[in-house]
Amino acid sequence: MYPDNESFDNRVFSCLVISPPGRAINGFKSVKEFLKACRDFVKAHRSLYEDGRILHRDISDNNIIITDPDKEGDPRGMLIDLDLAKEMDNGPSGARHRTGTREFMAIQVLKGKPHTYRHDLESLFYVFLWVIIRGRDKTLPKTSSLRDWYGGTPDQIANTKRGHMDKEAFKEITAEFPPEFESLQQLAKQLRGILFPIQNGALFTGTPTTPNTLYCPMVSAFERAISNHHAHSIADKEGTRGIGWDGDTQETGYQSFHQG
Number of C-alpha atoms within 13 angstroms, CB side, residue 67? Predict the structure, then answer.
């Protein structure tokens, strides 16, 4: 029920019943498959936003699907559930409140700022961390810092996440990675550096004017991680070590941006 001085939105409920297109992102069979699904999500989101002019606005661990492609090169990751999506060229979506799943919501969205494409990518990053730290048993450790991502008010959660994204504090997040995912700690640091650069001496959570300022380096980071994981797997089988990781992403800030 809305107050009498507010009009109701004319929204249509639709239901499409189809066969399952794949597995939830936490149903990965290998670390490499998980990485490919995350990479392909970024590509899919870029296409949805730039070609379809659609903003998803509800990225969660239930809305990223791992597919079983028929041939090599087909997408491994799929983005589903667009019931809270917004067509960029149309008017208001009808959603009156913050959209998203609280533990995956971007900092600025929690603060009540308008949703942008960057916020969906930030949500993917939180899903990435969430799936890794929950591990194979899909249970968040009782001592995990991520438990603070869904308790409290939106402002409190936003401030907690901002604190966790600090370069030094983030080390405590990656320290929670289970042994199977320890090799992805550098990737996590690189993604954090891409999404949260330093602007004027402070953590920047705004949105770059040029989308590929984020899309391209994120795809590249996942591509390197996939290649490195493959090389390390081969090296482990042969008793040697292969390609090493690059250093942390340099936090120099974006060249062009809006929404400070």
Answer: 18
